[in-house]
Amino acid sequence: MSGRETIAVVGAGAFGTALAAVIALEGKADVTLVGRDPSLMADLRNDGVHDAALPGIRLPDALNYSHEPEVLSAAETVLFAMPSQAQVDAAMAYGPYLKDGATVVTCAKGIDRATSRLLSDVLEEALPHHSIAALSGPGFAADIASGLPTAMVIAAASLGEAEGLAKAISGRTFRLYASDDRIGVQLGGALKNVLAIACGVVEGMGLGDSARAALIARGLAEMSRLIAAMGGKADTVRGLSGLGDLVLTATSHQSRNLRFGISLGRGEPIDFSRGQLVEGAFAAAVASRLAEGLAVSLPITDAVTAIIEGSLDIPTAIEQLMSRPITTE
Ligand SMILES: NC(=O)C1=CN([C@@H]2O[C@H](COP(=O)(O)OP(=O)(O)OC[C@H]3O[C@@H](n4cnc5c(N)ncnc54)[C@H](OP(=O)(O)O)[C@@H]3O)[C@@H](O)[C@H]2O)C=CC1
Ligand SMILES: O=C(CO)COP(=O)(O)O
């Protein structure tokens, strides 16, 4: 026994690999990246580079790789870094291998489409003997893995637990803040993707930076209303997982959600087969449904939902947003 903490990251895509790399580089914990493709994991071990997900970025020598779920039995903390809609499947597949008392951290930004529930809620149900935390906030995988300074937030059921996780995972370039608002932190991560699509539409249509700024501010108001209605904390929307991630994703071309919106705005056909994950395209309809049930108004989110579903064209959506009754901020 080394006596050091053992951390496993499940999901060998861009974000999982980046998280595993930055934690391993710090040297405080033994870190294993767990993927389901044996040949990919062997290539990562041999090459030290994930060409598909993080091209050109060297992964630390200290990082371990495995395709075998049995390795999870050594980990006190397990990060689930697969897409939102795969989190429940992953809980079913990997749950039996988790160590007693291990904490599972969902790192996806979305809402479970099958149940319209937060990922921490569906994971808590699937893994009733484990604490569930949620990691979110502004941070592109490539920036994190390159060692650029990044700050995100980790939310757990109690602040003490979140602080313990933040200390274990943070390092010189990757800093986590602690929160006990799992609802607010996760809704911020899910909704900012939808709002980034809206900002992409504005950019793709050439509607100008003033329109983008208006969408960011009014989008933040939507986020804040849904967080409050679902029992989250008002302050969370002003933090890293709300304002921070919304600004990043709505303005950076590194964002897949923004790029997807730009394609929509340019009138390019929607094509989900190109392999790019666009979480906001899934979250939009779920958020609209949730808001309707709670009598919360989310006009921008609803417009994105209708555009993606093909029931509203973009010029009409903009006209409708601009002709809503004049109200106070
Ligand atoms: N990329 C980024 O900059 C950031 C991403 N995120 C969030 O992280 C999540 C993942 O995104 P990202 O890493 O970019 O996506 P990628 O598409 O790069 O990778 C997703 C990975 O998940 C794996 N996977 C899918 N289903 C399962 C499963 N059931 N069990 C185990 N592994 C599975 C895939 O494996 P396979 O190839 O075998 O299908 C793939 O390696 C998203 O919710 C995203 O919003 C958050 C912050 C930053
Ligand atoms: O969540 C992210 C950065 O914080 C990544 O955004 P995209 O999924 O839009 O690429």
What this model shows, in words?
This protein is of the alpha/beta class. It has 2 domains: 5-180, NAD(P)-binding Rossmann-like Domain (Rossmann fold); 190-322, Orthogonal Bundle (N-(1-d-carboxylethyl)-l-norvaline Dehydrogenase, domain 2), CATH 1.10.1040.10. The protein has 13 helices and 10 strands. It has helices at residues 14-26, 38-47, 87-94, 119-126, 141-145, 159-169, 182-204, 209-229, 240-251, 256-265, 279-293, 299-309, 314-322; strands at residues 5-10, 29-34, 64-66, 77-80, 103-106, 111-112, 117-118, 131-136, 150-155, 174-179. The strands form 2 sheets. Strands 3-2-1-4-5-8-9-10 form an 8-stranded mixed β-sheet, sandwiched between helices. α6 links the parallel β9 (150-155) and β10. It is globular, with a radius of gyration of 19 Å. 51% of the residues are buried. The mean pLDDT is 96. The structure holds NADPH dihydro-nicotinamide-adenine-dinucleotide phosphate and 1,3-dihydroxyacetonephosphate. Residues 10-16, 35-37, 53, 81-84, 86, 89-90, 107-110, 139-141, 277, 279 line the site of NADPH dihydro-nicotinamide-adenine-dinucleotide phosphate.
